[in-house]
Amino acid sequence: MRRYLYFIAGWASLGLGTIGAFLPLLPTVPFMILAAFCFARSSPRLEAKLLDHKHFGAHIRRWRERGAISRRGKKAALGAFAFSVVLALFFSPFPWFLIPIAAALIGGTWIWTRPEA
User: Fold this and answer.
1) Which residue range forms the structural domain that includes residue 99?
2) Most buried among 8, 31, 54, 84, by the most CB within 10 A?
3) Are 107 and 81 in contact (CB under 8 A)?
4) Phi, psi angles (nearest 5°) of residue 30
5) Cβ–Cβ contacts within 10 Å for residue 81, how many?
6) pLDDT, tens digit, for every residue of 83-96?
7) pLDDT tens, 61-111?
8) In terms of Cα–Cα distance, which of 46, 21, 20, 17 is closest to 34?
């Protein structure tokens, strides 16, 4: 039963990652990393396909080996955080706009302190 749940979660993550390739604020690589994690526990064949993918394979392997995020990936994530904060400042009333600011500060700090590829 657990294997099927991982399989379903892997496909859901893969779907969200695919959508994220076309929507600017939805991350792609973290969903692909999650899909590889789920497929490692449910379908080694699909995991191998993700690891061999020309765009995402290197990111997944670097994350698994060293917990590394590329400099370009860090900049993209921080840019998305900044954009979210600006949107919150314009469209959310006080004190609700503080939530995205706190999330951006915490998440951005964590991302920036990860090793680079």
Assistant:
1) 71-112
2) 31
3) yes
4) -60, -35
5) 20
6) 989 999 999 999 99
7) 999 999 999 999 899 889 988 998 999 999 999 999 899 899 999 999 999
8) 17
